[in-house]
Design a protein that fits this description.
The protein is of the alpha/beta class and 328 residues long. Helix content is 28%, strand content 21%.
Amino acid sequence: MTALLEIENLRVRFPTMGPLRARLTGVADPWIDAVCGVSLSIAEGETLGLVGESGSGKSTLARAVMGLVPVAEGQVRVEGRRIDGLGGQALAPFRRRMAMMFQDPVGSLSPRLTVRSLVAEPFRIHGVRDRDLDAEVRRLLGLVGLGPDFAQRFPHQLSGGQARRVGVARALALDPKLIIADEPTAGLDVSVQGEILNLLARLQGEIGVAILIITHNLNVVRHVTDRMAIMYLGRFVEQGATGQVFERPHHPYTEALLSANPEPDPDAVLNRVEIKGEVPSLLRRPAGCEFHTRCLYARERCSSEAPAVSSAGGAHRYTCHFPLGENG
């Protein structure tokens, strides 16, 4: 399959203090790395799930792809063309190929605008003047299962599920090839979560859009994604085909996340793997393998030597000195 989005060795940094204060206090590197050397690709029509604890860098990675935060190092390519470092009018054509759904379905919608204005906004921003906006709004609302009467409502008049559908409609306005869905089911009832996921799956089948889903919900990842990537402290610790990662995880962090996944069967035998300790601060990253302070299988080597990327066959990759199955 053709790569639609390619990310290579991406690094995103944020300052912790101003340069003058850093000099006065003797801080040599007043920055934190929110995303460190991340690489991935998404093919046309593919769904990739991005998983990790809060603060692991998932949303920052998505914002860097969209050009909403600056890229310190690495490359972002859309359909083979680099977009990192672009801004303004140079980035606009690529932003038409990508759309983002933000975490808060209601908070991401301006309370002063009607649904019609919100859905039509992408056309105005990108100067699309050759379309009947009323007809486009009706078409897009119909795509996401909302009637034309919703066009005159304001965000406070919508339920969480309805607001999420409006977000999907707005994301589809310019016929993007990639949708980045940041926690698309967060804060929604279980039945509404299923409706939103079915909607995204249906739209993907109808128009072939690729989807990057950022979520804590591993059941969502298991059932709707083709591939998945596990993120910890701004790095990928494992990625590969979703079925392979679920069936045979190689990284201890992946094992712990999968074991914590809720099991609906009350009679199921659960083998929970508990992670010890707290997530380290980005200001004080552990030496060696950054997960060794919480890992059940850590050895002396882990505290001093960072693991290289290893292959478990095909596109299944992980970073661990002593992968699962070899810890005996």
